[in-house]
Amino acid sequence: LEKNIPAxxxxxxxxxxxxxxxxxxxxxNRERLIGISALPTLLSQPLIEVSPSxxxxxxxxxxxxxxxxxxxxxxAVVQDRIGMVAPRVLCMIINEAFFAVxxxxxSANDIDLAMKLGTNYPHGPIEWAEKLSLRQIVVVLxxxxxxxxxxxxxxxxxLRQLSITHA
Length: 167
Prior knowledge:
Largest sheet: 4 strands, mixed
Number of helices: 7
Strand order of the largest sheet: 1-2-3-4
Distance between the termini: 29 Å
Shape: elongated
Strand content: 5-15%
Radius of gyration: 17 Å
Structural class: alpha/beta
Order of helices and strands: EHEEHEHHHHH
């Protein structure tokens, strides 16, 4: 990649499962790498999360913000952490919904209805999971669990099973 684009060009990479700093270690010109929250369906939203690594210079951050602004996107600069912000929170909500299904608290349809009408979400968590890809949600949650070793990121067994069958 670096051989094919000028050193002054910013490189944007999905930083959901590997930090930008770790990815930067694979490059010679580490200062131009910026992470973005590239989770399907969230990319179509008006906000893009941008995450600089410890090597990313301020010029690269400004260039990335200008590029996204020219595409009609707002940017939020967030820490270089696995999952970033919106994908991390969304995957957690989806995971909790699958735990609720597994524990027979409510049907998938009733959970979706409760979240759409009760919290004004644009999609219910089960419906959103289908749009995002069950496999992608599991990958993000596993990356969070491996990074932080916190039980709250443990994937609901039914979500993991379904992610295999919906591949």
